[in-house]
Amino acid sequence: MNKILILCLSVTMILTNVRVYSSHAAKGSEGVRPPAVAGMFYPNSPDELQREVSAFLETAGGIDVAGKIRGLVSPHAGYVYSGVVAAAGYRQIDPSIKTVFLLGPSHRTSLTSPSIPGVRAYQTPLGRVSLAELASTLRNSPEFVSVADAHLQEHSLEVQLPFLQVMLKDFDIVPILMNSSDPKALAEILVPHIADDALVVASTDLSHYYSYDTAISLDRVCTTAITAGRFSDMSLCEACGKQAVLTLMYIAQMKGWRGVLLDYKNSGDTAGGKNRVVGYASIAFVEGKEMTNTMKETLPAQDREALLRLARTAIEARLVEGAEMDRPRQVSPVFNEMRGCFVTLHKQGQLRGCIGTIEPTCSLMECVEKNAKNAAFGDPRFPALSEKELKEIDIEISVLSVPETLSFKDGEDLKGQLKPNVHGVILSQGMHRSTFLPQVWKQLPSKEKFLEHLCLKGGMSATAWRDPKTQVEVYTAEVFGELDLK
Coil, helix or strand for 297? Predict the structure, then answer.
């Protein structure tokens, strides 16, 4: 079998000697919809598929949530590209789930109303998954249609099934495709049928075919809007399954579920080049409060020292001939956790560079290595660090907790919730976004001045923080530096 690289449906695919299931069987006499993309998007061998999905589930990173996951936003590209991102969510679902509502886009057929197929089961190499009785009930209601051609070759729902089959023992599905239907109206129809043993999955990929850095910026707007339930910002979101995601967002709003970004990557991180990438996210909607805005634990001294050595040697390896990076050999478990971090360089007490990653999109060790290099050579405010300056700089690392959204009525309410010297703050308005680390409170102890400067940093008006439409997130940071070791 030739290696097949599939980012999404619109990528040109050359398939040679690939065993696939015949589409002529799609209208089989038993009313079973056979797999359309087995052998392309994922293996068509049951054993190979079981091994691959299990491996993704075992190795997936991402944020762990405390609380029951009731909804998932999950990607639908070929597993080589997005499988590890999808697994970040599926590995945490409740094994007692009995019904899964699958919501996804119809890539091939335009639909004016949500469509449910007229079959009794979906087939994958791992076996059959029956449709719930509810699927038939909804299909026969006036709000739905059943467009067989839309479902025959559609991959957006199909690629979710092997993950569900590995994680769940006995479940059925309500598969729904959509293009231009009203997400809120659909959510209102579905909510009364979503029992405690149900899961709602919205299938989507994010931005398509931008450069690596541009994709990250665009997708951040989308993932932030989804997790915060900011419907007004979804117009800025590039996602092929936006209608499905909006439906899940409305369901979450009605049910009181809270969104959290579990993992984000694009094809440049997984199995492709960085010139034209496709973005993928796993986002959970959870019952109850799934995290707090404090660090789980303090890093031990040896871990701090190892991360600081990693940061310094990552910079030295770029400047000094023959220098090698000192990656820790005895890896502490926290080094493999998904964490955001900032690396700050000071020279004679003055800022010499500071670059960071707020969202936890990679392991802590990767985050420190990447941002150490960026702070030294990629901060646009400063020239690239020279070899002569190496002995003059000291390095500081800030390890971040996962940002949480603050709801506030007005500026006074917001000020009352902020904790100086504890909270790092993120402000977002559309494409404008900026953050101050908790240590900035030392320079700007006044809450108003802190917020005004943060607004101006992000290209917003100085009073944008007073507007409840401005998104405010807070996080905490564990801060340590080389000067602490002296």
Answer: coil
Residues 14, 19, 25: CA angle, nearest 5 degrees: 110
* Domain interval for residue 444: 404-477
Claim to verify: residue 43 and residue 188 sit in the same structural domain: yes
Distance of CA 271 to the CA centre of its chain: 17
Taking a C-beta distance cutoff of 8 angstroms, is the pair 460, 470 a contact? yes
Say which CATH number the domain at 177 has.
3.40.830.10
Name the percent of the chain lying above pLDDT 70. Answer: 91
Residue 14 is assigned to a structural domain of this protein: no
Q: Are residues 467 and 336 part of one domain?
A: no
- Residue scoring higher pLDDT (146 or 324): 146
Q: What is the mean pLDDT of the chain?
A: 89
- Partners of 304 in the β-ladder: none
Task: Give a three-class secondary structure readout of 124-180.
Answer: ECCEEEEECHHHHHHHCCCCCECCHHHHHCCCCCHHHHHHHHHHCCCCEEEEEEECC
Q: Say if CB 15 and CB 4 are below 8 A apart.
A: yes
Strands of the sheet with 350-357, listed across from one edge: 350-357, 340-347, 393-400, 477-481
CB-based contact 475:403 (threshold 8 Å): yes
Q: What is the pLDDT of residue 362?
A: 78
Q: Are residues 120 and 253 in the same domain?
A: yes
- Indicate whether 239 and 336 sit together in one domain: no
Which of 286, 314, 335 is at the close of a domain? 286
Q: Which pLDDT belongs to residue 295?
A: 45
Give residue 87's pLDDT: 97
Pairing of strands 198-203, 69-74: parallel
Q: Does residue 293 lie within any of the structural domains?
A: no
Last residue of one domain, picked from the residues 365, 399, 433: 399
Reply yes or no on whether the pLDDT at 46 is more than 80. Answer: yes
70 touches 169 (CB < 8 A): no
CB distance 238 to 208 below 8 Å: yes
In 375-466, beta strands by DSSP E = 393-400, 404-406, 424-429, 432-436
**Are residue 393 and residue 409 in the same domain, yes or no?**
no
Quick one: pLDDT at residue 43?
Answer: 97
Task: Mark whether 334 and 222 lie in a shared domain.
Answer: no
Question: And the tokens for 405?
Answer: 């959204």
**pLDDT computed for residue 486 by the predictor:** 65
Residue-level pLDDT at 27: 43
The CATH number that applies at residue 322 is 3.30.700.20
Query: Are the CB atoms for 460 and 429 separated by under 8 Å?
Result: yes
User: Average pLDDT for residues 110-124, to the nearest whole number?
Assistant: 96
Radius of gyration of the chain (CA): 24
Question: Is 143 part of a structural domain of the chain?
Answer: yes
State which H helix or E strand residue 199 sits in. strand 198-203
**Domains identified in the chain, total number:** 3
223 inside domain: yes
